[in-house]
Amino acid sequence: MRTGIQQKVSAVITRGYVTFLLLLLSTFTLANSILIPMDDKQANHLKAYGIAFSVLKADVDVDWLLNYRGGSFMVKYSSVVEKECRVRGVSYEVVSDAQTNRILTLIADPDVNMNVVKLQKAPKVVVYSPIKVSPSEFENNDAVLLVLAYAEIPFEVVYDEEVLNGDLAKYDWLHLHHEDFTGQYGRNMRRMTVEDVKAQEDIARRHGYAKVSHMKLAVAKSIKEFCAGGGYLFAMCSAAETLDIALAAEGVDIVDSSFDGDGIDPNAQSKLDFNQTVAFQNFTLEYQEGYGGMAFSNINSTASSGYYQSLDFFSLFDFSAKWDIIPAMLVQNHENVIKEFYGQTTAFTKSTVKPNVLVLGQSKSSDRYLYGELGRGQWVFYGGHDPEGRRGGGHRMATDLNLYPHSAGYRLILNNVLFPSARKKKRKT
């Protein structure tokens, strides 16, 4: 049985996409451009990214105008692009060559914090999710699955089997979300069904692992290798935290007997190897028996104060678009103060973040949005589960993105989706 997300994915892929691309290629002209503004004049910020992605899929360049009207997009005029903007409810402006030149001249001014980044090729996008192998209805609130489908950006889904088989090499961009790489099934039976647990046990057995925790470690190491080899990794919620915990705990039993039949190594904390982690160091594990608690470690800044802690806002840093191009791309937005949102891992304790990690966004008490480089690859960790998540009756409610077309929190996700298409330059500062 296909989940709602899988049905949406199928709808995106079968939407006459090939026909659209062929028409698109045949209708670009040298005269005039289409400007897709991303400031408050934009009717649907999220779907605008889907327009940019569709142009890239046709092997046509997109200019990303950093800090110009909220990080606008500009492409050569095409009647197909114009029509698609109208169909998807995306605001656009047809600008003459003279107007285009004036915009580019303004952006090139050395005293103005703007830049033009050329986006060239659509990345091959994949999402790591248990919807591949089981019902996993909780994953229908995976923010990235939701926004990719809403923006009509095509993607594929993999899980442990595909990762262990080496399939990540087929892709450019990998997303991880509400996942537990420690082998404790999320410490939360409200999201982990019997079918989910059995599916993971079956994969572990097929690949010769005695425990799910051993299998998950192998998956975590494969994901790290994918990034180090040149891939782009984007993780949210508990995936960002548990990936590093699993890597640090290689060879150490940190899993309670209720999950794997034997106890935790009493010296586990002292045996953690922080040299193996991607983003975090010097963190302390949270030991709780069974499903008595949902915390993994003090990486999560809200671990000790509860899932329902009252939250406020976090701020994005203002980077130089001309010198610090990578972080400037990742923080493009029409708002620089963004509403906080919950997750099993809501935000990151400042003292646990490695000094070589670049903080893109933070609140007074925690870091929220992180960037780093690993080998030839790059990664971003973004705290929280769903930027527009709501709760009712004690349970997470499904998010209808038709109600949040201007979500600044979701825009950060889509910045990351487009990021691999850019000609990337190293940071200066």
Structural summary, described in words:
It is a single chain. By secondary structure, this protein is an alpha+beta fold. It is about 30% helix and about 20% strand. It has helices at about 5-15, 15-25, 45-55, 80-90, 95-110, 145-150, 160-165, 195-205, 210-230, 235-250, 255-260, 270, 325-330, 410-420; strands at about 30-35, 60-65, 70-80, 95, 115-120, 125-130, 155-160, 175, 230-235, 315, 335-340, 360, 365-375, 375-380, 390, 395. It has a nine-stranded mixed beta sheet, sandwiched between helices. Strands 4-1-3-2-5 form a five-stranded antiparallel beta sheet, sandwiched between helices. A two-stranded antiparallel ribbon has the order 15-16. A hairpin with a 4-residue loop joins β12 and β13 (about 365-375). α3 (about 45-55) packs parallel to α14 (about 410-420). Mean pLDDT is about 90; it is low at about 305-310 and about 425-429.
Question: Which tags fit this structure?
Answer:
429 residues, alpha+beta, Alpha-Beta Plaits, Rossmann fold, 2 domains, nine-stranded mixed sheet, five-stranded antiparallel sheet, 16 strands, 32% helix, 18% strand, elongated, disordered C terminus, Asparagine synthetase B
How much beta, percentage-wise? 15-25%
| Main sheet characteristics | 9 strands, mixed
General form: elongated
Intertermini distance: 50 Å
CATH topology of the largest domain: Rossmann fold
Mean pLDDT, to the nearest integer, reads: 88
Structural domain tally: 2
Q: Structural class of the secondary structure composition?
A: alpha+beta
Low-confidence spans: pLDDT under 50, at least 5 residues? Answer: 304-310, 425-429
Helical percentage: 25-40%
| CATH architecture field of the largest domain | 3-Layer(aba) Sandwich
Sheet with the most strands: spatial strand order: 7-6-8-9-14-13-12-10-11
CATH class of the largest domain: Alpha Beta
Classified in CATH, the superfamily of the largest domain is Class I glutamine amidotransferase (GATase) domain
- Helices, by number, come to 14
CA radius of gyration: 22 Å
